[in-house]
């Protein structure tokens, strides 16, 4: 899809060059070039100021990465140019033969450029406060304005004055140039009409594009490169436009249900949940929930790690987890019997793969008032699973068969420090209904190829696809020889079961590759569902969020069952404990091996319009527009959930969850 888009834009550029050449109007062409060039120059200066002022944040980037970030930033710069100067650019190219008209248009463009420079300066100042671009924070601008003004007055007044002066000079030069370039001409009606059509179409593009498609731009290459690539005014204006796409809109707005929770009390409640372990200690006062493990409960140092995240994995379809034998998952059954089954394990969300994968990779759940990954959270520094293991000299891979930007899974994995292989990188090895389709088998075989050649211990993550709707799209015409045909016929009436049997077969083939390479015995397996299967009615209670979780570590953890209440947010702390990672981290959960830490689950649904807390006392769910209500015990638990959410809202919005930058070994 990306290659197709680039090809279309290349064709557009060639056509535009030809049309404007035939138009033969040097004056309007020069004036237009000055307007666009001046705008891009201001964008470049803003990005350079960001790099110089906050050089410590970007110290881990090489010179080549900095250049690439600047180059990638041209695209959001162009879109921002169209937003702020598009009307002036369009008027400038009308077939009006008047020097004064050109001067007026360039003056309008100068005003747009001045407003942009002011907003860009504000973003740079705001970046110094929270180490991220403005983005959806624009909706909190009124509450942040006194803080920003005080910071400008105290520390950045020279930057503001310089920006205003440069913008004024550029606007004056524009008017001067318009007077010196001469009188514009007027070409043939055909070329004038085509030129206006092209300019008008270009000016409409930012408004026609779906905002969600641009929000994570650049961050898939890492947090530091994302900050340097992004244009803060672009992200801010994009969020403003996204309000008409309510499905994609998101902002850092405190819901009504959190306003009654006191900030200090909320922080103390959060510490009771996240900082209660006697085996961990606070790591940095600047980050209230950042902690460091000082005692470890198991030792898997030097072992390989494979994480299998299974789409819509229904626990009672697996014989090793259910009392109803189905014969669907013999390979998963064999793995599970070697591991620890956590019988009370829950997903952070009811129906979102992005929530499930995001929480596994970062231990950050989607909670009320906080934009999740793809909508703004990618600009906040969090603990990143891939980076944690890379800093322990692991090679880290992520493989899935979907398109790279499908549900933002690929860019998210890249942001978390993984080398990502998506559907576009895979070659079909089985036959599917649609040409060039790939599915779980191809993704697992690519992961097997990667880990077999790894020169260091590896962390490999696989995200399954075949049990995602529509079921016929990701299922091969045949698999596994006779057994596959028998299974396909046996479960032909239940496509979910049929596809789960296929994924199980593919996992068996992957495990066979590990055994052949002598890697199986030294590998820890973690198997988890991303969310419960959709479309199945369930009574209110913990079962709304229940998913399977199995930790397979023979020789380290004895096989069996564990009744601890745990959740997806506990996975990262558990791996920190199991693999003896001494790096500080922040998480919305605790190690499942740590008996001194409380067990609980933060949960949400409906894009976190409904949020809650699951403890041994039960499950409470609350709508964001409602205050806590119910009997005395339930009201107390709802208040506790609101305080937890309020603490996380405050800390994440201030970007005080984890350090703003890390330096990974090269």
In short:
The chain has 666 residues and is of the alpha/beta class.
Please tell me about this protein's structure:
The chain has helices at 2-23, 26-53, 63-72, 74-92, 99-130, 141-180, 189-208, 223-229, 232-241, 256-259, 263-274, 330-336, 353-362, 385-390, 409-415, 440-452, 481-490, 495-516, 571-578, 632-653, and strands at residues 280-282, 291-293, 304-310, 340-342, 345-346, 395-400, 419-421, 458-463, 523-529, 549-552, 560-562, 566-567, 601-605, 610-615, 618-623. With 666 residues, the protein is α/β, with parallel strands linked by helices. It has an 8-stranded mixed β-sheet, sandwiched between helices. Strands 13-14-15 form a 3-stranded antiparallel β-sheet, covered by helices on one side. The chain has a two-stranded antiparallel ribbon with strand order 1-2. Helix 2 (26-53) runs antiparallel to helix 4, helix 3 (63-72) packs across helix 8 (223-229) and helix 11 (263-274) packs across helix 20 (632-653). The longest helix is centred in the N-terminal third of the chain and has 40 residues, at 141-180. The two termini are 32 Å apart.
């Amino acid at each position: 899809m990306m290659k197709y888009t680039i090809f279309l834009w290349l064709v557009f550029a060639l056509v535009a060059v030809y049309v404007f050449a035939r138009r033969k109007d040097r004056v309007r062409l020069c004036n237009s070039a000055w307007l666009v060039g001046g705008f891009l120059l201001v964008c470049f200066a803003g990005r350079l100021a960001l790099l110089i002022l906050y050089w410590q944040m970007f110290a881990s980037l090489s010179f080549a990465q900095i250049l690439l970030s600047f180059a990638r930033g041209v695209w959001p710069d162009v879109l921002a140019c169209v937003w702020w100067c598009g009307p002036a650019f369009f008027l400038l190219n009308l077939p009006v033969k008047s020097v004064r008209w050109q001067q007026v248009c360039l003056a309008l463009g100068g005003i747009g450029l001045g407003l942009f420079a002011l907003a860009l300066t504000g973003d740079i100042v705001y970046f110094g406060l929270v180490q991220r671009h403005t983005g959806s924070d624009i909706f909190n601008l009124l509450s942040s304005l006194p803080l920003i003004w005080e910071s400008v007055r105290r520390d950045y007044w020279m930057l503001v004055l310089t920006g205003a002066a440069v913008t004024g000079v550029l606007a004056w030069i524009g008017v001067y140039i318009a007077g010196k370039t001469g009188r514009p001409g007027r070409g043939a009606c055909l070329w004038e009409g085509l030129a206006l059509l092209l300019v008008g179409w270009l000016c409409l593009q930012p408004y026609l594009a779906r905002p969600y498609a641009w929000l994570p731009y650049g961050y898939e290459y890492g947090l530091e490169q994302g900050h340097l690539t992004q244009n803060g005014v672009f992200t801010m204006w994009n969020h403003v436009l996204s309000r008409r796409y309510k499905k994609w809109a998101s902002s850092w707005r405190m819901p009504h249900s959190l306003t009654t929770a006191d900030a200090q009390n909320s922080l103390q409640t959060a510490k009771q949940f996240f900082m209660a372990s006697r085996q961990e200690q606070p790591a940095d006062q600047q980050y209230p929930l950042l902690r460091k493990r000082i005692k470890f409960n198991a030792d898997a140092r030097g072992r390989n790690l494979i994480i299998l995240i299974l789409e819509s994995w229904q626990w009672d379809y697996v014989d090793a987890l259910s009392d109803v034998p189905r014969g669907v998952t013999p390979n998963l059954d064999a793995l599970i019997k070697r591991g620890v089954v956590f019988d009370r394990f829950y997903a952070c969300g009811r129906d979102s793969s992005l929530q499930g994968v995001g929480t596994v990779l970062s231990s950050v759940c989607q909670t009320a008032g906080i934009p999740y990954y793809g909508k703004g959270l990618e600009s906040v520094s969090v603990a990143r699973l891939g980076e944690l293991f890379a800093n322990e000299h692991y090679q880290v891979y992520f493989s899935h068969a979907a398109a790279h930007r499908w549900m933002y899974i690929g860019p998210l994995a890249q942001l978390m420090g993984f080398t990502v292989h998506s559907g576009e990188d895979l070659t079909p090895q089985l036959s599917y209904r649609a040409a060039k389709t790939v599915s779980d088998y191809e993704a697992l075989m690519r992961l097997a190829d990667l880990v077999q050649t790894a020169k260091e211990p590896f962390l490999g993550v696989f995200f399954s696809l075949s049990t995602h709707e529509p079921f016929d799209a990701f299922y091969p015409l045949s698999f596994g020889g006779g057994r596959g045909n028998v299974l396909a016929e046996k479960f032909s009436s239940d496509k979910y079961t049929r596809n789960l049997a296929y994924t199980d077969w593919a996992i068996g083939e992957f495990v066979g590759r590990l055994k052949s390479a002598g890697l199986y015995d030294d590998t820890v397996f973690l198997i988890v569902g991303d969310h419960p299967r959709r479309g199945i009615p369930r009574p209110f209670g913990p079962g709304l969020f229940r998913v399977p979780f199995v930790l397979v570590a023979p020789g380290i953890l004895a096989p069996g069952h564990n009744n601890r209440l745990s959740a997806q947010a506990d996975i990262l702390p558990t791996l920190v404990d199991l693999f003896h990672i001494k790096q500080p981290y922040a998480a919305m959960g605790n190690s499942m091996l740590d008996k001194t830490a409380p067990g609980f689950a933060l949960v949400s649904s409906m894009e976190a319009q409904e949020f809650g807390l699951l403890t041994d006392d039960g499950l409470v769910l609350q709508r964001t527009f409602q205050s806590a209500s119910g009997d005395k015990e339930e009201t107390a638990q709802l208040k506790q959930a609101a305080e937890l959410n309020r603490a996380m809202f405050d800390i994440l919005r201030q970007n005080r969850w984890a350090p703003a930058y890390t330096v990974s070994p090269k």
